[in-house]
Amino acid sequence: MPRKPFICGNWKMYTHRAEAVALAEGTAKAAADTPGVEVGACPPACYIEAVVAAAAGTPMVVGGQNMYFEPKGAFTGEIAGPMLKDLGCTYVILGHSERRHVFGEPDDLIARKVKAAFAAGLVPILCVGELLEERKAGKTDAVVRRHVTAGFDGLASDQAAQVVIAYEPVWAIGTGETATPDQAQEVHAFIRTLLADLYDARLAQAVRIQYGGSVKPDNAHALMAQADIDGALVGGASLKVDSFGAIIAEGAKAKGV
Length: 257
Ligand code: PEP
Hints:
The chain is α/β, with parallel strands linked by helices.
């Protein structure tokens, strides 16, 4: 089974309600125009419902940007997996570098969230990736191995096969600096060898691995033309319909879909 490319926007803590709805309408149109690519967006939690409504009747999918691992309880300020599901989410981003490095989320917390996402009927987009100093110190593979191994800890193969991995080198996120297609491909291929070790070769070929880190219309084609890059997780450039639509079109061209 070929892996369906998946291009997803991460709106972070941007947009206001009217902007979110307009962006969702434009993104939903791009999703409908490009059926060979799965297209989604992860809006701020407070606008998920409005975005789901704007995307209704189109193939656009919606995700949360984070969640807590408990399904309910006295956890002020947190959002639970069942709440995201109830709002109409399909996916949830977990382990984003801003969660890991700004909010100090460790691997074991992220692993609990991955399991809780499945328990809530959500599919995790598990972000992994090294810091600049880790890359310079030759630790990229070790860091990615740690993130992947911890994130998949205890997952049976039927769930593991559904996880979307986003390889996001931290030095490329929001910096305008992108990994070269070769640098990204190398890590994506390495992630497949990890999955083959943890599970088997079939599963390693089935899991979709997005690239994330300053993806723009002018670099999207070269990145997604790489054999093991199955789409993109896009921050800044997903906040404008023009640039996100162009990335989706470039991804479709690169994958021949
Ligand atoms: C992201 O938020 O996951 C991301 C990759 O951001 P940007 O595209 O802005 O680098």
